[in-house]
Design goal:
Blueprint lengths: L15 H21 L5 H8 L3 H29 L1 H21 L3 H11 L5 H12 L5 H32 L4 H26 L8 H6 L12 H8 L2 H32 L3 H13 L4 H16 L2 H22 L4 H25 L8 H26 L2 H15 L1 H4 L5 H22 L1
Length: 442
Amino acid sequence: MSDKATRIDLFSFRTAPMRAFHLTWMAFFVCFFAWFACAPLMPLIQRQFGLSIDQVANINIAAVAATIVVRLIIGPMCDRYGPRKVYTALLVLGAFPVLGAALSGGYTSFLLARLGIGAVGASFVITQYHTSVMFAPNVVGTANATSAGWGNAGAGAAQALVPLLLAAMLALGASDASAWRYALVVPALAMPLMAVFYWRLTQDCPQGNFAQLRAQGIAIDGGKKGGWASFRAACANYRVWMLFVTYAACFGVEVFIHNIAAVYYVNHFHLSLKTAGLAAGSFGLLALFARALGGWLSDKFAARRGLDVRSTLLFALIAGEGLGLYWFSHETSVGLAVVAMLCFGLFTHMACGATYALVPFIDRKALGGVAGIIGAGGNVGAVAAGFLMKGLGNVQQTLATLGVLVSISALCALAVRFSTEHKAREDELRAHALSVNNRIAN
């Protein structure tokens, strides 16, 4: 704990925590750009492959379904192998299904490629794991939320920039049938390039890499055999499942909106593909500051009122998200619809940040399992929203129903409470980290 960073020196690459901070959000940005690069292209792909509404829904579900399993696995893998090795491997392997989507020839091959791309979404768990082991309790919420938010902006960037890449390919002479394929090659090449930087510039924790530390006889949380023991411990903790639901309500909705927003604006408000992409992209770009704001508020409130206030803040944010989502679903004016989307999007991203501001405090010895299960909850929410849309057959009705369900799920945040002993132990860890930092500074 004494080696963990007690502040965020934003413009520094000198220390291991700050290098990890910057490399994690950059890697996460690249992964999310690749994960959602297909979304703004779907109206064009839908026409070229002759896809039905049901087939589009299946593709959207596939894009997030694989992430559920991979997130559950990748958290314990971080405990066992360290986030540096796991992130590097994910970046390299994840490039192949992105290329597969670019080479697909019809519904089946594109569906399988989107299923494979879903594994890239597990990058979030590694990002949160890496910053959690690098930063002390007084700033870990802000570090987690900021790195996740800036990385998450890759989804919004994909919504806004991929149509511009498409336009550039068309201007260079590519046909409609091939231009979108060339556009997908860009994130596919960016991923292995990012892997090189991550491997060379990061380490697993402030003291070094897990393999070397274990070779020296230094104990690593999660156990020498890796994360399966921590995974079982996480499964037995009721707080994990409460946050599983809340993350399904915020991140699940976020992913769902990323996948359907461009198509919704084109079909419902009759916008052009470029304009719809910019409108949908504004939702994702909120992550640049909104996630960080949620984590920062959680840290600030906890410093004054203790650990339990983090749960109360999360309740308020998810309730606000649900009300805003219901408003968005009933707007008939495109201008007010964008305003409503930005309002509920602000609450959505802040709630995501506030959720992972809580994660490091659930069980420090089962961090990988906790982060993985809660992260998977977000994708369960996205898949559930996809099936809800298939069942209702109407996007607008789906959004309204989600608004009600999200508001109800906010109650799960209030159920997350900690024992007196748990809070005393966390207060002691926080005070110790701050006192050591003050001695070093003086």
